[in-house]
């Protein structure tokens, strides 16, 4: 094992997030092993953030097959490696550590993670054993973000049931949040990851219980006092638009869409599209089309370069760096979102 990987991943497996034992000084050396211009982000003005439902890191041999490394190769084509990588559907602590290690092997920077459930309960997935265990995690670059002790929190979200919103019982719908110190600016950053249920049996006004889950997530993300920046990613299993208009939950979430209730979040893809519906439709994230995955940040901040990462971009990057690609397989059934979040 690469020595710079061993320290971080070992700490992660023991502590759940072990960045206190990892020093940023080791990061520049990582560039010597890379053949491209990607670098760590030392700009004080923004963080580089990604969000994706990674579907248990799908591989070619699984029942629901995929080529998950494509997304990491895409990251290698960018100016900066991620500071923040919010992921959903990790099998547990071991898989989050695997992802952190793979990022360290292929990108400049040291990475660690915070996970909602180290050992999530089985859910009898229709995709078979490889996806039976699912939870949410935050992968972060330790040279930029240092966890603040005592700020981790988890919470179970709601599902629809017989016309009501009731507490769900799946490990994959337990959200996670933690606060960090930005080691460049010394500002406080709060990060979160959440996956909302698929049960569309709630009240007619909120059948997917997205409004209820937004309210809960907003409360949890804003519990940390003195935060300068708040970023959270979600697989909401709920679209943003239907029947010629934005859904109520999304209007409440996005401060740039008029609503009687405003939770004061912004959506970097909406900002990049300047609200153009055609552009937003092109930025679909779910395998059947439509936007169900989102990266949100507190409206006091701004964003740039918000986009979804196409499967073709992942395939091309894999081919560029490895000389081969399974172009019949995608890095996930969900397309990832990336943006620079300025604060």
Commentary on this structure:
50% of the residues are buried. The protein has 343 residues and is of the alpha+beta class. It is 22% helix and 27% strand. The protein starts with a helix and ends with a strand. The protein has a single domain (3-22, 53-342), classed as Endonuclease/exonuclease/phosphatase (Deoxyribonuclease I, Chain A). The strands form four sheets. Strands 5, 6, 9, 10, 11, 14 and 15 form a seven-stranded mixed beta sheet that branches. Strands 3-4-2-1-17-16 form a six-stranded mixed beta sheet. It has helices at 3-15, 69-76, 93-106, 210-221, 248-253, 268-273, 277-282, 311-322, and strands spanning 46-53, 84-90, 111-115, 135-141, 145-147, 153-156, 158-161, 164-167, 174-182, 188-195, 229-235, 241-242, 245-246, 265-266, 293-298, 302-309, 336-342. It is built from eight helices and 17 strands. The chain is globular. This is Endonuclease/exonuclease/phosphatase domain-containing protein.
């Amino acid at each position: 094992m690469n020595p710079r990987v061993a320290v971080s991943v070992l700490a992660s497996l023991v502590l759940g997030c072990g960045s206190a034992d990892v020093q940023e000084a080791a990061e520049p050396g990582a560039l010597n092993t890379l053949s491209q211009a990607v670098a760590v982000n030392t700009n004080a003005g923004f963080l580089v953030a990604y969000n994706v439902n990674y579907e248990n890191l799908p591989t070619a041999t699984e029942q629901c097959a995929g080529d998950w490394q494509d997304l990491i190769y895409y990251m290698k084509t960018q100016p900066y490696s991620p500071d923040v990588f919010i992921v959903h559907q990790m099998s547990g602590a071991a898989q989050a550590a695997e992802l952190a290690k793979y990022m360290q092997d292929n990108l400049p920077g040291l990475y660690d993670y915070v996970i909602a459930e180290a050992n999530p309960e089985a859910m009898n997935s229709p995709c078979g054993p490889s996806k039976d265990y699912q939870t949410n995690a935050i992968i972060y670059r330790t040279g930029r973000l240092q966890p603040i002790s005592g700020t981790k929190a988890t919470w179970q979200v709601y599902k629809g049931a017989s016309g009501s919103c009731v507490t769900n019982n799946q490990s994959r719908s337990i959200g996670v949040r933690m606060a960090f110190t930005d080691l460049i600016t010394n500002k406080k950053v709060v990060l979160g990851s959440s996956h909302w249920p698929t049960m569309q049996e709630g009240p007619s006004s909120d059948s997917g219980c997205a409004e209820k889950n937004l309210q809960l997530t907003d409360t949890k993300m804003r519990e940390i006092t003195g935060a300068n920046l708040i970023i959270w990613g979600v697989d909401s299993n709920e679209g943003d638009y239907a029947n010629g208009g934005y859904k109520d939950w999304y209007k409440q979430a996005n401060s740039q869409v008029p609503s009687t209730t405003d939770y004061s979040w912004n959506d970097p893809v909406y900002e990049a599209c300047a609200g153009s519906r055609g552009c937003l439709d092109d930025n679909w994230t779910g395998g059947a089309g439509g936007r169900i995955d989102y990266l949100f940040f507190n409206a006091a901040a701004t964003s740039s370069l918000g986009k979804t990462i196409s499967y073709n971009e992942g395939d091309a990057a894999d081919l560029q760096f490895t000389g081969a690609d399974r172009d019949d397989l995608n890095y996930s059934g969900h397309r990832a979102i990336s943006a620079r979040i300025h604060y």
